[in-house]
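Key result, reporting period 2: structure in, sequence out.
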């Protein structure tokens, strides 16, 4: 039986710590040096940065005078069928988001309430149970990237008849302050 104590101990080092692992391949011993900073750690750091930035933008936007519905232009006169279709799409998005939260967050939590960090590392089959919930949370924070498309000039327009509170584009870093943020981002279907 081979001794893997060097390898198993190196898994529990703090982020950024370097360790020396001994790897047994066939009958030869190889010594390699590696670091715990992996692409996953780098993406997680970027995700944390983006989450904090999104929360900051949200707080600035909600506490400003820009947090109000976008004006509806006089030339914007949709038909009754178009308004019904828009509202159906909004309600469908909310219902779908609720179903996803139930199936990907609430149901797995009731099935296994321990977070993955509290489990033993050998329970790798249970660690993926929260992946869908993490992807959903990431998608919610990614909605803030939409305003970058209109930060300098209008690339696409939203429908001001949808439930909206304007746009947060003015509060994003590197946004042109002279660009208008008075367009309606449909809150009921941009988040889901």
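The corresponding designed sequence is given below.
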């Amino acid at each position: 039986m081979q001794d893997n104590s060097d390898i198993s101990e190196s898994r529990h080092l703090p982020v950024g710590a370097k360790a020396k692992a001994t790897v047994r391949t066939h009958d030869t011993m190889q010594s390699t040096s590696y670091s715990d900073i992996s692409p996953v750690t780098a993406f997680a750091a970027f995700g944390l940065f983006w989450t904090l930035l999104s929360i900051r933008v949200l707080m600035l936007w909600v506490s400003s005078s820009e947090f109000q519905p976008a004006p509806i232009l006089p030339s914007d006169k949709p038909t009754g069928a178009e308004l019904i279709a828009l509202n159906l799409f909004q309600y469908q998005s909310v219902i779908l988001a609720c179903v996803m939260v139930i199936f990907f967050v609430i149901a797995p939590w009731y099935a296994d309430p321990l977070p993955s960090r509290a489990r033993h590392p050998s329970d790798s089959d249970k660690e993926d149970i929260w992946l869908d919930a993490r992807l959903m949370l990431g998608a919610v924070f990614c909605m803030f990237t939409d305003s970058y498309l209109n930060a300098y000039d209008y690339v696409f327009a939203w429908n001001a008849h949808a439930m909206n509170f304007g746009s947060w584009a003015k509060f994003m870093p590197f946004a042109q302050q002279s660009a208008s943020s008075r367009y309606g981002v449909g809150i009921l279907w941009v988040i889901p």
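Residues 5-10 have pLDDT under 50 and may be disordered. Strands lie at 18-25, 28-35. This case is discussed further under Risks and Mitigation.
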